[in-house]
Specification:
By secondary structure, the protein is of the alpha/beta class. It has an eight-stranded mixed β-sheet with strand order 5-4-3-2-1-12-13-14, with helices on both faces. Strands 8-7-6-9-11-10 form a six-stranded mixed β-sheet, covered by helices on one side. Helix 3 runs antiparallel to helix 6.
Length: about 290
């Protein structure tokens, strides 16, 4: 088998627009596994979210990369590696948000820390743990995962961060206007030790600790598994996948990916509403 490991993104890749995974895609994944391939979810989602999706499609017992590489889960679903922000960059970042009037929320484990309840966080638990009803998810299992998630409203955010020094692994930034591209530049210029990307074509920002990317954590994982990166395939749809696609032996962009992401990939497959992952597996990996 030329490519013995497949790293796959979730949103816009495995998940269709209804946050479900097509039966055709699940069947292709397991055909690849039957032939000796290993499948690793590599997502910006939380550990619980990635585990819930992995369990539902029969990938329990495989390593998982969560929070864009900040957390690596081992075969037992336990944290093997974790990267967190240092206090000073977090404080400077929050000051910049306050100055610009930009909303951000912060991920501490499977808890979402928010300065207020609003449209960007009020349905976070339901979005973080989608029902996966058509994918095969069971209601009681879904509720069990949702009950482990928490949204924590912090009234005095700066003071809270100073006093508690939470272990933040990811930050998400949202805005109704078109200010995020400029805000991204300001973060780069004024705040140290932050990696900035996006999973929604810069309708949001996803920020990780310095040096943390899907690509970097995938490289660590493949080294641990003894799989050369040249024998690794990766598939994704957005800017936070681009480094991973360019690093892998075979980088596959989804048909719904932005043009710049397609340009760094070796191949382009169908979109996430037409089982593009299944198409890619059958075409490039089942040899």
């Amino acid at each position: 088998m030329k490519y013995s490991l497949l790293a796959t993104d979730l949103d816009g890749t495995l998940l269709n627009e209804h946050k479900e995974i097509d039966a055709e895609t699940i069947a292709a994944i397991h055909e690849y596994r039957r032939r000796g391939g290993k499948v690793v979810i590599c997502s910006g989602r939380s550990p619980l979210s990635t585990k819930w999706i992995a369990n539902t499609i029969g990938l329990k017992g495989n390593p998982i990369i969560a929070y864009n590489g900040a957390i690596l889960l081992d075969e037992n679903g336990e944290i093997q590696e974790q990267a967190v922000f240092q206090p000073d960059p977090l404080h400077h970042f929050w000051e910049l948000c306050e100055e610009e009037g930009i909303y951000a929320h912060f991920y501490e484990g499977d808890t979402l820390l928010v300065p207020m309840v609003n449209k960007w966080n009020e349905n976070w638990i339901e979005n973080n743990i989608p029902t996966l009803e058509k994918t095969g998810g069971r209601f009681e299992d879904c509720e069990g995962f949702r009950n482990k998630c928490q949204i924590k409203v912090i009234d005095h955010f700066y003071q809270y961060m100073k006093e508690n020094q939470p272990k933040i692994t990811k930050i998400a930034v949202f805005d109704d206007g078109e200010r995020l591209a400029d805000f991204s530049k300001r973060i780069s210029e004024q705040v140290e030790d932050m990696e900035i990307s996006s999973s929604f074509n810069f309708l949001n920002l996803e920020i990780s600790p310095s040096g943390v990317t899907k690509a970097a954590t995938l490289a660590k994982l493949t080294e641990n598994l003894g799989i050369p990166i040249s024998q690794t395939a990766a598939i994704g749809d957005n800017y936070n996948d681009a480094l991973m696609l360019s690093m892998a032996g075979l980088g596959i962009a989804m048909g719904n990916a932005p043009e710049k992401v397609k340009q760094v990939a070796n191949q382009v497959t169908g979109n996430n509403n037409e089982a593009g992952v299944a198409q890619a597996i059958r075409r490039y990996l089942l040899d």
